[in-house]
Each structure stands twice: as C-alpha cells, then as structure tokens.
Amino acid sequence: MPTYHYRCNNCGYDFTKMQDFSDAALTVCPRCGKKTLRKIFSAVPIEFKGSGFYRTDHSHSSSHK
Questions:
Q1: Residue 28's closest CA among 11, 5, 8, 3?
Q2: Is residue 26 part of a domain?
Q3: Model pLDDT for residues 12-65, shown as the tens digit of each residue
C-alpha cells in the first residue's frame, strides 16, 4: 500500500498517510479542518545495482580518459 505525503496550506500541518491506489486524495486537514490540504510529490529514490553503472565498470585497459 503506497504512502502519500500531505501538507496543509492553512496551518502547515505535514503528515503521511497510507492509502490504496483507488482511494481519493485527502482534501480536509485533520488538524485545522480547512479544505486546504495538498499532496506533496517528491523524487523517488533510485538504487543502481549490477555492472555498468560505475566508472570502474569498464575494461581494464591502461588508457583511462
């Protein structure tokens, strides 16, 4: 189940909520009760594994540029 990050534009309350993909986005702040809640989007962390991602993962020739 994905976790979504929300922030209220009125009071600044910042929280995360686990929701199903089919659930509607939250719009009302649980702290102040105003309908000023917005979903915060951020970059997804990426982890590269395996060969071919690092500078040292090439042939062992003596001519490194």
A1: 8
A2: yes
A3: 999 999 999 899 999 999 999 999 999 998 887 787 777 666 666 555 555 555
Give per-residue pLDDT as tens, 33-42: 999 999 998 8
Domain span including residue 11: 3-40
When divided into structural domains, the chain yields a total of 1
Decide if 31 is inside a domain. Answer: yes
Q: How many CB atoms lie within 10 A of CB 8?
A: 21
Q: Which region, left, alpha or beta, applies to residue 62 given φ > 0 means left and ψ of -120 to 50 means alpha?
A: alpha
- Give the pair of three-digit tokens for residue 57: 């993962």
